[in-house]
Amino acid sequence: MSLDVAAVRADFPVLARRARGGHPLVYLDSGATAQKPLAVLDAERDFYLRHNAAAHRGAHLLSEEATDAYEGARARVAAFIGADPGEIVFTRNATEAANLIAYSVGNAATSGPSGGRPAGPAAERLAVGPGDEILVTELEHHANLVPWQQLCLRAGARLRWFPVTAEGRVDLSGIGALVTERTKVVAVTGQSNVTGAMPPVAAIAAAAHAAGALAVVDGAQLVPHHSVSVRETGADLLFFSSHKMLGPTGIGVLWGRREVLEALPPFITGGSVIEVVRMEGSTFLPPPQRFEAGVPAAAQAVGLAAACDYLDAVGLDAIAEHERALTERALEALTAIPGVRVLGPLTTERRGGAVSFTVDGVHPHDVGQVLDELGIAVRTGHHCAWPLHRALGVQASTRASFYLYNTAEEVDALADGIRTAQKFFGAG
Ligand code: PLP
Asked: By alpha-carbon position, which residue is closest to atom 5 of ligand 1?
């Protein structure tokens, strides 16, 4: 089934606005955050207009409706990724989910899942301590790297990583030596936000499990663009952000296998997560409530559920194929421009729609500025993946990233814009 881009675009009012210089807006920055369809805006507004109250607090009608809406959203998100509602934890975003995992795993040995000490055997198995190793990849977004670095500092553990190939993929040739009995966590991206590379997460998770390690997948760039069934990824824990998949900002998702979530202690504590509180100490509710302190972001959850509806109605497979075609066109157009180096794989095999590139003789920020003058929105810099840029031998790059509402003409406008930048700066 192919995708009707004109019909999709009509659902995104912002795409009709003018950009700098009166140019039509060409939004090629969905890897940073996606635009929102009317259905998502309407769902969030409707919640505030008719049902707003603190979910899971209060005994009145509105609170009950807000709770139903919030829990309904949890069930909708669970269905979207083939999970059970009880395995879905709402976080603030993907970054907070990664921190939740790193902190909870780090505390698992000292703080039992229900608040008591000592931790049970399941928690002790997950705990990270001195001499243990955490394995990541050089491809990671800082969100799936820095929390693990910090955990290693706190726990006296060692961070190791799969290197990256010249093509911008994970180099798995050393997997036998890197995954050992010391490995406690293997955390890997499902799709690079820079090179678009899609590591074989199921194979990596299988290797992690064979060593008794936990498999964590950063799904921030994967879940918005592909049909994902969490069980097929082989992961124990997988996280992503609503705002990159047409939903509101301020809400993210952590999915975890039930027995893993049950063994982990809470991360942020306070109201909503507790079973019993005494001055001497507290005990905690089972997951997912154990991990959702404070009044929940119910309106955002409702918006995210509407985003799931929208994506499913268009069809994730149709979206993936549409992005694949745009990416193929972009790779062809950009590699044909002398002086342009694409940082990721040059074919669309196991590759998503983030196309990062450098232009000889023109700084990425200058490329971005010229494109902006032409109405084309891209990202410039290291895209929160500084080690990856270093490994690829560049300081920074310009990134175009595609989604369901982008068109072939917009890809051509990007290529024309790059040529304009080259002319302007006397390069190429
Ligand atoms: N992981 C990847 C691969 C990303 O691209 C991003 C955001 O760009 C994140 C994690 C962090 O997402 P957020 O900023 O929504 O927490």
From this structure: 193
pLDDT value of position 108? 84
Residue 213 shares a structural domain with residue 340: no
Q: What is the pLDDT of residues 6-53, one digit of tens each?
A: 999 999 999 999 999 999 999 999 999 999 999 999 999 999 999 999
Domain with 85, as residue range(s), is 43-311
Q: Does ligand 1 have an atom closer than 6 angstroms to the CB of 29?
A: no
**Contact 93 CB / ligand 1 (< 6 Å):** yes
Tell me, yes or no, whether 36 lies in a domain.
no
Atom index in ligand 1 nearest the CA of residue 93 equals 16
Q: Say how far apart CA 385 and CA 396 lie, in whole Å.
A: 9
Boundary residue ending a domain (311, 335, 356): 311
- Tens digit of pLDDT for each residue in 231-276? 999 999 999 999 999 999 999 999 999 999 999 999 999 999 999 9
Q: 193: Cβ below 6 Å to ligand 1? A: yes
Q: Do 199 and 290 reside in the same domain of the chain?
A: yes
Catalytic annotation, residues: 384
Q: Which of 100, 101, 139, 141 to mutate to test the pocket of ligand 1 (most atoms within 8 A of CB)?
A: 141
Ligand 1 pocket, 398 CB below 6 A?
no
Distance CA 272, CA 292 (A): 7
Classify 170 as helix, strand or coil. Answer: strand
Calpha distance 387→137 (Å, rounded): 10
Confidence of residue 121 (pLDDT cuts 50, 70, 90): confident
Domain end: 282, 311, 340, which one? 311
Q: What is the spatial distance between Cα 181 and Cα 261, in angstroms, rounded to a whole number? A: 22
**Residue of 194, 241, 383 with the most ligand 1 atoms within 8 Å of its CB, for mutation:** 241
pTM over 0.90: yes
- Signed CA dihedral, 143, 37, 51, 302: sign only: negative
Do 270 and 329 sit in the same domain of this protein? no
